[in-house]
Amino acid sequence: MTRRMITCLLLSLTGLSPVSAEKSETRESSPKVIGYLPDYRLTGNALANVAKCTDVVFFGSEILGDGSIKMAGQNTQALAKLQKACRKNNAKLHLCLGGWKKDTHYPKVTADPKLRAKVIDELLKLQKKHRFHGVDYDWEYPGTENEMKGFIALCRETKSRLGKDFQVTAAFHPRHKIPKGLVEQLDRIHLMTYDLEAPHCAISHSRTAIEQWTSQGVPSQKLCIGIASYARDLKDRAKVKTYEQLFQEHGETVHQTMPVSGFFGDNQKSALQKLDLAKKEKLAGVIIWEIGQTPAGKDSILKRFPKN
Asked: Which spans in the chain are helix H?
């Protein structure tokens, strides 16, 4: 009996066809496409772009000083629509805690074992209620050795309590150095390779970050590089336009050309180049900030990505 015949026999016993098994294997081995989505941007465009994502990170919630979790927004109906879109497209939904001045209580909470336990208790309740597949801890950033020790403890205890299938990730500046002890507790490290020196999200920043992090001994399989669905003015970085705004102003030109009118951001061409770079370097995948800032369909920044 040939190896293929044996494989087909085993698959028949599990109810899988060779084709579906190959698709499943390909999906698992391909780079993840992780779209961040803030609570205030749960729009039609964003929900349509879920189809191109393997994972979606719901952004805007925070850890409070007493260890409780304040969920982003009050529109439970909108969150339900996001959950439905994720189920429809077989995308995993994660909860982001922190970021954008929502990380102020991390130092206090991570230093106290009781408060860390409360955070995880709350997270467990939210996981059961909303079917989250993971948590993205967005503390920008632990500034002392003791803060890093507390953060490592939080990640380790989260993994221990919620199990190996619950993913624990963290977002970091690409030039931030983190200890091996933290790397071991994380499923993925989301490198924010944007908002750097002009041009702020050039692919050269991602290449440099990959080299720097892997040279520190971080496995490439844990790293994600960033795609920016917005552009910054090359002379005045405070001026920002979303990919959708650029498309409205310049049409299909933006899909292949950057900069446009002095603004530089990722587009369909560079986003695909970053996905290809992730494949080449055997990275965990790419992150996108964020999938509500781009049109959907043929004019989405993710247009050339395979459907999940």
From this structure: 3-14, 18-29, 44-49, 76-88, 106-111, 113-130, 145-162, 180-183, 203-215, 243-250, 268-280
For residue 38, what are the CA distances in angstroms to 21, 100, 128, 131?
Answer: 34, 11, 21, 18
Gap between the Cα atoms of 267 and 254, Å rounded = 7
The overall pTM is greater than 0.85: yes
Helices of type H across 30-67: 44-49
Residue 217 burial (CB count, 10 A): 8
For CATH 3.20.20.80, list the domain ranges present in the chain: 31-299
CA angle 107, 61, 200 (to 5 degrees): 80
Taking the mean position of all CA atoms in its chain, how far away is CA 169? 8
Given a contact cutoff of 8 angstroms between Cβ atoms, the answer to whether 86 and 73 are in contact is no
Per residue of the chain (308 residues), give pLDDT as tens: 444 544 444 444 445 444 444 444 445 568 999 999 999 998 889 999 999 999 999 999 999 999 999 998 766 778 889 999 999 999 999 999 999 889 999 999 999 999 999 999 999 999 999 999 999 999 999 999 999 999 999 999 999 999 999 999 999 999 988 888 999 999 999 999 999 999 999 999 999 999 999 999 999 999 999 999 999 999 999 999 999 999 999 999 999 999 999 999 999 999 999 999 999 999 999 999 999 999 999 999 999 999 87
Q: According to the CATH classification, is domain 31-299 in 2.60.120.40?
A: no
CA distance linking residue 27 with residue 267, whole number of Å: 24
Q: Widest CA span of the chain, in angstroms? A: 68
Placement of tokens 């003791």 in the chain: 146
